[in-house]
Amino acid sequence: MTLLLHKPYGVLSQFTPEDNSRWSCLRDFVDIPDVYAAGRLDADSEGLLVLTSNGRLQQQLTNPCFGHWRTYWVQVEGSPNPDQLQQLRDGVTVQGYRTRPAKAEWLKAESIPTIGERTPPIRYRAAIPTHWLELSLQEGKNRQVRRMTAAVGLPTLRLIRSKIDLMDGGTPLDLTGLKPGEWRAVTKTEEGRLVQLLKGSNPKNLVGRRRG
Fold first, then answer.
1. Distance, CA of 101 to CA of 136 (rounded, Å)
2. Residue 80 sits in which domain range?
3. Same structural domain for residues 75 and 137?
4. Is 109 exposed, middle or buried, given 0-12, 13-18 or 19+ CB atoms closer than 10 A?
C-alpha cells in the first residue's frame, strides 16, 4: 500500500512521538498500519510525503543513486538576483559538501501557487521583502534546501515539497487535491507506474545520468 500525505508544519516524519518533543507525529493524521515514510521532511517543513508498506519502493525513492527530482516551493527572505539563482543551479558548498546541480526559478506573482497561511505564521520584517522560489534537487541531505538558500544570502522562511518525479516521463506525484493533514491512496495509474519503476530500477545504470 502506498499513500500520499500533505504533511503539515510541526509534524515529525515518523509514527512514533519523541519524548518531550513539541512536535506531533504521523499517527495523529494517518491511521493505516504498517506504512512508513519514504524519505523525510523536517518537522518545520511541509508538503508531499510518500508513505508505503513496500520496502523496495521506500529504498528506491530515498536512495540518491536513483536521482528522483524533488521539487520545493521555498519562501525566502530577500529578493533573489540572477547570480544567486545561478549559484543554486550550479551547486553551493554547505558544511564542506558541494551540492549537486539543481533547478532554481524565481516564482513571479502570476506563478506563485495558491498556498494558505501557515500555523504558526512565518516571521515578517517590514524592511525586508519575501519571495517564492521553486527549487528542484536530486538529493536530500539534512536541511539541505535551507542551507543552500542561506549560503547564497536568501534565508528560508517556509519550505513546502510540492512533487516527486518518478523518472518515467509521466506526471509527478504531487499535492493536487490535498490540504495540510490530508492523505489519499495512490490511484491505480500511479500504482502501476510505481510497479514499473521497481521493475526497471537499477541504480548502477543511473549514476552517470543523474549528473547530466
1. 9
2. 69-164
3. yes
4. exposed
The neighbouring-strand residues paired with 160 are: 46, 73
* Residues identified as active-site: 42
Distance separating alpha carbons of residues 72 and 6, to the nearest angstrom:
13
Same domain for 41 and 10, yes or no, is yes
DSSP secondary structure letter of residue 65: G
Q: What's the predicted TM-score (pTM) here?
A: 0.91
Claim to verify: residue 89 and residue 146 sit in the same structural domain: yes
Per-residue pLDDT reduced to its tens digit, 29-84: 999 999 999 989 999 999 999 999 999 999 989 887 888 899 999 999 999 999 99
Residues 86 and 149 placed together within one structural domain of the fold: yes
**Cis ω for the linkage preceding 172 (within 30 of 0):** no
Alpha-carbon distance values, 37 to 21, 30, 52, 62 (Å): 19, 11, 7, 10
Beta 156-164 vs 46-52: how paired, if at all? parallel
How crowded is the C-beta side of 178, counted as CA atoms within 13 Å? 27
**What is the amino acid identity at position 134?**
E
* Residue 208 φ/ψ region, left for φ over 0, alpha for ψ in the -120 to 50 degree band, beta for the rest: alpha
